[in-house]
Amino acid sequence: MSSVPDGKKLLRSPSGLRMVPENGAFNSPFALDEPQWVPDKECPRCMQCDTKFDFIRRKHHCRRCGRCFCDKCCSKKVALPRMCFVDPVRQCAECSLVSQKEMEFFDKQLKVLLGGGTFIVTLGTTEKTEAMTCRLSNNHRYLFLDGESHFEVELSRMSSMQILTDGTSPGDTDIHTYTSLLDSQCISEGGTARASGMLLHYKPMGSQDAQQLRLEAADDKKVASLWLAAMHKAAKLLYESRDQ
Hints:
One of its GO terms (molecular function) is zinc ion binding. InterPro entries: FYVE-type_Zinc_Finger (IPR052113), ZFYVE21_C (IPR032031), Znf_FYVE (IPR000306), Znf_FYVE-rel (IPR017455). By secondary structure, this protein is α+β, with helices and mostly antiparallel strands. Helix content is about 20%, strand content about 30%.
């Protein structure tokens, strides 16, 4: 499935122009659907400051949450790549802060994931290891692992991800599911703990049995650590996308 061409099309919606995959089944797993707008008749007042709308005070919809605001409470135009908008779009104060924080991932960490890192990979519970480059596919849907062999992990089929840091060993208390990743601050770019490895559990295509994949940083530990920190952030966004 990873070899299917990723064609794009320009789509005009009430919120603005969007560049989306021609086949919706191949959306990025980080993508969010456009929200349903609160109907005009159901919002006579700003949903933030309670100002009453009239001919002078016009109502505006936040492109991220779909709620209705006055111009003062919904004046910022901020990039929203998770909804594939071509240009920055109008967002309320709360949503614009979230979108601005996410831009760090799209501007920096996504590029790190696409560039890849080198790891010592162990598949399952075998003792056989292989040096492989792990990177995110261009459509963001797969992890590609390339060495003497090649295999792929579809992000949507990952069930848990454990980040290992220097001086730690795997254990039940260390496992980060997507839920706990939202509250975990132990891995961050420039943080005090350096990521040294990752333990994934995922279900291969056509199977309901989970497999384990272990990655440990190879020679260039700095690049590998940055890649793992970026993957940590990606897992947070994946969880948020599933929860929408």
